[in-house]
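As noted in the main text, all predictions were made from sequence alone. Below is one such record, for Importin subunit alpha.
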Amino acid sequence: MQGPNPKAATELIRVDGLLDALVRHLRKADDELATEVAWVVVYLSAFSNLATSMLVESGVLQLLVQRLAMSNSLQLLILVRVVVLVQVFIPYILCFILSIWLYMFPLQKPSPGHISLEILYRNIIEVLVKCLNSEHRVLNKEATWVLSNIVAGSVEHKQLIYSSEAVPVLLRLLSTAPFDIRREVAYVLGNLCVSPISPTEGDGKPSLILEHLVSLVGRGCLAGFIDLVNSTDTEAARLGLQFTELVLRGMPNGEGLKLVEKENGIDAMERFQFHKNEELRNMANSLVDKYFGDDYGLDE
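Prediction:
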């Protein structure tokens, strides 16, 4: 089967014996065969909600996580994508998560919110860190893409990533990785610092998660974002300006202004004064006018 065909995916998952065959082949030690099976799982989970629920109930998710943990090859790439596809359907996998919890911690009584994060994501994050540390550039990029999807979720998702081993690696990649990976890393780190809770503040800006912001800035991430402000890439520059705004607005005691100035952020923003992109021009000019106007530095 080829092409995005939800009807075909739903019909395929209903074929008698298919699920058993997928599970059986994923359990085998043959990585090449397991990878081919995983492509089928990608197709099914991408185009059919019914297929996704049936795959999860059959134990495929557990097998995928096991494969992720054991593999050291580029075959991780496809399996990471599968896990991201199925993790959207948490209502379908809650029973699976509960069974794993009871197996691992038989004397503890989990709450639904706790198990959905601490069990489902913890193992996946360990694998993502493995991908981030890989020498394969493709795995680095795929892992940051997965993390960017996770941190776009709830505050609990953000806290889980923030407290994980992924953050030190992301901070390193922000300054050392190729440009496209740095841009994706910036999205992850930036989203760790803002709350998805509505409504936003009166001026339309997202609410800050101050603990995350102060910690990440204290660990030196601002320079990487200012580098993105200096980029000719529109999306990267937007990410850099957005994070700069968070620093200026949120760092306690006005510390953000000094930090941005120290990293040559004022010069970086002023280059947008006559920029052809209206959105970037307005973002940069408003930040300079608001925080670095004529009165800036007079109190010193």
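The chain has two domains: 1-132, 178-300. The chain has 19 helices and no strands. These features were considered when defining construct boundaries for the mutagenesis experiments described in Section 2.9.
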